[in-house]
From TrEMBL:
Originating organism: Allochromatium warmingii (Chromatium warmingii)
Full protein name: AhpC/TSA family protein
GO molecular function: antioxidant activity; oxidoreductase activity
Domain Thioredoxin: 9-161
CDD domains in the record: PRX_like1
Domain of life: Bacteria
Amino acid sequence: MVSTQTPLYDFGAPAPDFALPGVDGRVWTRDQCAGPRGLLVMFICNHCPYVQAIRDRLVRDVRELTALGIGCVAISANDATDYPEDSFENMQRVASEWGFTFSYLYDESQAIARAYGAVCTPDFFGYNAELGLQYRGRLDASRKEAAPPDVRRDLFEAMKQVAERGEGPAEQIPSIGCSIKWKAE
């Protein structure tokens, strides 16, 4: 398992469009996932210990961000052939077990992950109402284990600011996690 950090990013860059199958049986597009005040695109997977450590916080934060007008979507792009725990069927199971209130989509071709420049799980891309990138940081200080309950909620605070002002914070701490499991080319 390779651990990696998200790079600095081109803030204001537009959110790439997508049309991907969700665990609910629907095909979802970027515009269907966006909320009136912005969009949070999360690249996650099932097997990554960094994602497993924050799933409960992710569910909590998405619920609160949705109430603020931020649409939220998670995308798994890992190669399920080499990582069967990340298969579509297992995505359905995990979404049900954890009570995901957001769409959980499968990027089997990995084209959308590449279009976004995703590098790890979890990897967060926060956009304003005009779908310009405003946040590319971490959820909180969690690593392979959850941080203490009273830790600063970096992602939530940043996206709350995006919902209220249309801009993210000037200072952002990169996310860290397992590298995306790319298919052999």
